């Protein structure tokens, strides 16, 4: 598989997802890049913006196992990971695996579950395994958690702690659609259904793309740019907590996957500029200012590789 094949693969997936939801082509591509990079995604948006439908359409376009967990206040960790069940036929306990044992797991309204349930996701997200009855079990590969949450109606919810937010490679914030998209929603009664979505990527395809991603070239100046950008968040005005080193690694992986899905075997600074807000917006804790405002300022202030070369030559 070549970089051009990867681009065609991304185009096919976007075409299938668009049979169910429209206006989210970039978001579908972001989810695919995140999956290839081995990350997890958090999607935020108001009710009715098709967060769940987007994830279901994305998962159906992949011939991978999929499960959905509706998070509620009465959910238990074992409802996600599984538990030991006594089997009278064999006179012993056996493992009954939970919905976490799927390639793509949708954690719907993740902030409605209590902290114990949220923490049950940490091991799965970081280690690719869960512990049941004192024994560890590996999760399928590839494995990705896509969580959704509603930024309003926060009464009775449990905000995700910073340690768990940091495990999500990207956070996507969905807004209201434009006029043309909403007109099509009113005209086409089949939109919103995933029945017409066909699987166009296999697990083997994803693993091949991951291998190909490792060969994507990132110039030393671009690597330095990523590091400088992340480090700048730690000393920026109005920031209480800057991005962690995990952010540097996440952004480095994601730009490689994004370049690949755009048919390139090399990363350009614009890839970093485009993806940095998705990787940083949930990791930068401010004193009340919108993190995206801080991130936009840093993207303007931190010299790009081209600027560095010009300054060096002068």
From TrEMBL:
Residues 231-287 form the ChlI/MoxR AAA lid domain. It holds the Pfam family AAA_lid_2. Coiled coil: none annotated. Keywords: ATP-binding, Nucleotide-binding. Residues 40-170 form the ATPase AAA-3 domain. InterPro entries: ATPase_AAA-3, CbbQ/NirQ/NorQ/GpvN, ChlI/MoxR_AAA_lid, P-loop_NTPase. GO terms for molecular function: ATP binding; ATP hydrolysis activity. This is ATPase. It comes from Vulcanisaeta souniana JCM 11219.
């Amino acid at each position: 598989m070549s970089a051009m094949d990867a681009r065609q693969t991304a185009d096919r997936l976007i075409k299938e997802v668009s049979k169910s939801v429209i206006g989210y082509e970039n978001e579908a591509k972001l989810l695919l890049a995140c999956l290839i990079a081995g990350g997890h995604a958090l999607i935020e948006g108001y009710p009715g913006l098709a967060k769940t439908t987007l994830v279901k359409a994305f998962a159906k376009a992949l011939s991978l196992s999929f499960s959905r967990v509706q998070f509620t206040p009465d959910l238990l960790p074992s409802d996600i990971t599984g538990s030991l069940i006594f089997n009278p036929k064999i006179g012993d306990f056996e493992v009954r695996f939970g919905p976490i044992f799927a390639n793509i797991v949708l954690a719907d309204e993740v902030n409605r579950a209590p902290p114990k349930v949220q923490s049950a996701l940490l091991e799965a997200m970081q280690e690719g395994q869960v512990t049941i009855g004192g024994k560890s079990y590996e999760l399928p590969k590839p494995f990705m958690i896509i969580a959704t949450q509603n930024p309003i109606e926060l009464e009775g919810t449990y905000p995700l702690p910073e340690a768990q937010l940091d495990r999500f490679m990207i956070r996507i914030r969905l807004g209201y659609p434009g006029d043309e998209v909403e007109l099509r929603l009113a005209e086409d009664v089949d939109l919103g259904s995933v029945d017409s979505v066909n699987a166009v990527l296999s697990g083997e395809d994803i693993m091949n793309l991951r291998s190909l991603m490792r060969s994507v070239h990132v110039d030393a100046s671009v690597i330095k740019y990523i590091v400088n950008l992340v480090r700048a968040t730690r000393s920026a005005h109005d920031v209480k907590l800057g991005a962690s080193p995990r952010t540097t690694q996440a952004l480095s992986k994601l730009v490689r996957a994004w370049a690949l899905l755009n048919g390139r075997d090399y990363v350009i600074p614009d890839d970093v500029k485009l993806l940095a807000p998705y990787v940083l917006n949930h990791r930068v804790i401010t004193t009340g200012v919108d993190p995206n405002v801080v991130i936009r300022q840093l993207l303007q202030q931190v010299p790009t590789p081209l600027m560095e070369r010009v300054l060096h030559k002068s």
